[in-house]
C-alpha cells in the first residue's frame, strides 16, 4: 500500500504511529511530504500593493527568506525520517491543500495520512473547528482515501445528545 | 474642451461626477491589475482635457498640498536609508534576544517594536520593512509564521495614530484641518493605547497555543552581524533620535513636518553616500514614485468633484447623520472612514473626507474635532478589517467560498473581522469620551 504522510512541522510522531498501525495490515511504501506554504509571502505582496509598491518588485530579504524556508522544510523532513527511516521525501512549494492532493495523485497514493490540524501542545479538540483548512481541503479533494489523524479525546465524551 | 464650448452647468456636474465615480470604481476593482496611480492620473487627465477643472485650479490644488508630497518623500527616504543601515534587522534580533526563548515574549516584543517603528517612521516602514524581517526571523527560529506576520501587519495600522507622523493619512487630514499637538494627543493618544491593548489581547487569545512554544536563540546570527557598517549604523540611530525629537517639537509648534522628514532623510543620505552604503540610484529604487502620481491624481479628481458641490452635500449628510451630537460625529466619522478605506484604499478616502468635512467648518468645535479625529482614526485603522485587500476582493473571495472553491485568503480575512470591529468600536467610544 502506498501511503503519503503529510508533515506540518508538529506531527512527525503522530503520523509515524498511524503509519505503524497501517503497517500491521499490509506492507507499506511510505513517502513523507512537506509543503512550504506560499500564503505568507502572498500576504506580504498584498501588503506591498496596499502601500503602492509594485508586487513584481522583490521583497527585502527575499533570497534569505527562500533559503530559510528551504532549510526549515529540510529540518521537518529530517525529523520525519527519524521516525520513518525508509520513507521517500517530497518537498513542494505552494498552497498546502492543493499540493498535497496533487502529489497524492501524481505519486499514486493509496492512502493520505494527515493530521486534523497542527498541534502546538494544546489539548485535543473535537467539534467543527477541530479540522483545519488544509486537512479539510484534502478530505474534500483527495484522489484516494484519507486517514485523518487526531489526538485521543475520550475525556470529552459523552457529548450532548 | 468645455472651456471653449459653453455647456450647461448641469452637464458639467454630471460629467465630473461620472468621471469621479468611474475613477473610484477603477480604484476599487483595479481592472487588468492597473496600478492605482495610472487610474487616478487618467481620471485627472480626462477632467483636465474636458476642461472640467482648469489647469490653474489643478496646479493650485497640488501646490497647496506640497507638505503632503514632501512628507511622503521624506518618510520613505528615512525608512529606506534606515533599512540600508541594518537598523530593522538589528532591532528584530534584539527583540528575539530579549524574549528569553519564549515565543509569547517574542510576540509581545514584535508588537512593541512595530509600535515604536510606526510611531516614529510611520506604518509604511512597519508593514513593508519590518514584516519581511520578522518573517525571516521566525522562520529561522522554526516558530509558526502566521501569528508574527499578523502582529506586524496589524500593528502597523493599529499604532499609526500615536503621533501626527505615524501615518501619512494623518498629514493629509491635518494639512486641511490643523490640530495642535496637545489636541491631537488629547483626542487620539488614549484611543491608540486602547486599540493597541485590544489588538495584543485578542491576538494572544487567538494564538495562545502557538505562543506556548520556545525557541533556540542560537539559530539566529548575532545582532552585530546585522549591522552593515558600524559608523553609519550609529549615525543612523543618532539622526533618527534627533528626527523623533524634532517631530514632536515641530508638531507642538505646528511647523511643517515634511521639513523635518526631508531634513532627516537628507542627513541620512549624506551619511550613506559618504560611507558608501548606498547609491543614489539604489535609494531612488526603494521609493515608491507612483504614490506621488496617485495622490496628485486623487487631489485633482476630488477637487473637481468639490467644485460640483457633491462633497459638500456628502459632508452635510454626514453631519445630519450624526444628529449634531459629539457621539454621532465620532461614530459616523469612524464608520464612514473605515468603510471607505476598505472600498477605495485609505489615501483616497482621506482626501474625500477632507473635502466633505470642509462643510462642517462652522459646526461647534467638539463636533468638528470629533469628525477630524474619527476620520484619522477610521482611515488609519480601517484597512485592518480586510488585510487581504479591498472589500471588493473580500466579496469575491466569499463568493468563491460559496461555490466550494478553497480560498486561503479567507483565513487571513477572519483575523481582521474578529479584531477590527472591536478596535473600531472601543477606539471610537474612547474618542467620544475625550471630546
Task: Itemize the secondary structure elements and their pairings.
The complex is a heterodimer of chains A (161) and B (435).
Chain A (H helix, E strand, L loop, with lengths): L1 E5 L5 H12 L5 E9 L1 H12 L11 H22 L4 E7 L1 H11 L4 E5 L17 H9 L4 E4 L12
Chain B lengths: L8 H21 L6 H14 L5 H10 L1 H19 L2 H12 L4 H19 L1 H18 L4 H14 L9 H9 L4 H26 L23 H24 L3 H18 L5 H6 L4 H19 L1 H12 L4 H19 L1 H11 L8 H17 L9 H12 L6 H26 L1
Helix pairs in contact in B: 1-2, 1-14, 2-14, 3-14, 4-9, 4-12, 5-6, 5-7, 6-7, 6-8, 7-8, 8-10, 9-17, 9-18, 10-20, 11-12, 14-17, 15-17, 16-17, 16-18, 16-20, 17-18, 18-20
Walk me through this protein's architecture.
- The complex is a heterodimer of chains A (161) and B (435).
- By secondary structure, chain A is an alpha/beta fold.
- Chain A is 41% helix and 19% strand.
- Chain A has a single domain (2-38, 71-156), classed as Rossmann fold.
- Chain A has five helices and five strands, in the order βαβααβαβαβ.
- In chain A, strands 3-2-1-4-5 form a five-stranded parallel sheet, sandwiched between helices.
- In chain A, α5 links the parallel β4 (111-115) and β5.
- The longest helix of chain A has 22 residues, at 62-83.
- Chain B has one domain (9-434).
